[in-house]
Amino acid sequence: MSTFNVPKREEVSEANQAIFDNLEKAVGFVPNLFATYAHSENALGNYLNLSNAKTSLKTKEKEAVNLAVSEVNGCIYCLSAHTAISKMNGFSEDQILELRSGRASFDNKLDALARLAKNITENRGATEAAVVENFFAAGWTKENLIDTIVLVGDKTISNYINNTTDIPVDFPVAQPLQAVEA
């Protein structure tokens, strides 16, 4: 695995510099993963448009998907970032660990969502019929299904960029699930 540099503001295009400035104002810093997207003239803007697009999923629901997908894809950067974001959105440490494992015993509807996200990711989209049926039985809609698949793709892009570039994690590092469960 190769290690990419994380570009600084002065090393990226003017368009990406403007995005860096907006991220700095909104988040307080430019996360290393987003900066890495800026190696491309277009990837950072395109990714942020996808990531911030309208969806039928609420913030906590999106985090359930992000955690399950990032765990399957073994992305420590995204697990760390989404653990921090999930805590800010009201999930407890135990709930976050459960969501990472693709379950949510504390909420039937989130459980069906997390199981779906995990199954989609593990099976590269060849989702098991029983998992989809369980998703609908929990009260989710076809719109939610499509939006979940789009979110799985969104998160997989970031997982793959991090796993390929091996950039430094600039969030509190999430512990490996196996070490926590042991």
| Strand-pairing-aware structural class | mainly alpha
Number of helices: 10
User: How many β-strands, per DSSP?
Assistant: 0
Average pLDDT value?
96
Oligomeric grouping of the chains? single chain
- How far apart the termini lie comes to 28 Å
Helix content: 55-70%
Fraction in beta strands: under 5%
Largest sheet: none
Query: What is the CA-based Rg, rounded?
Result: 16 Å
> Can you write the helix and strand succession as a string?
HHHHHHHHHH
Shape: globular
Low-confidence stretches: none
Features of this protein?
globular; 10 helices; mainly alpha; 182 residues; single chain
Describe what you observe in this structure.
It is a single chain. The protein is mostly helical. The protein is 64% helix and 0% strand. It contains 10 helices and no strands. It has helices spanning 14-27, 32-37, 43-51, 59-72, 76-88, 93-100, 108-122, 129-137, 142-165, 177-181. Helix 4 (59-72) runs antiparallel to helix 5, helix 7 (108-122) packs antiparallel against helix 8 and helix 7 (108-122) packs across helix 9. The radius of gyration is 16 Å and the shape is globular. The two termini are 28 Å apart.
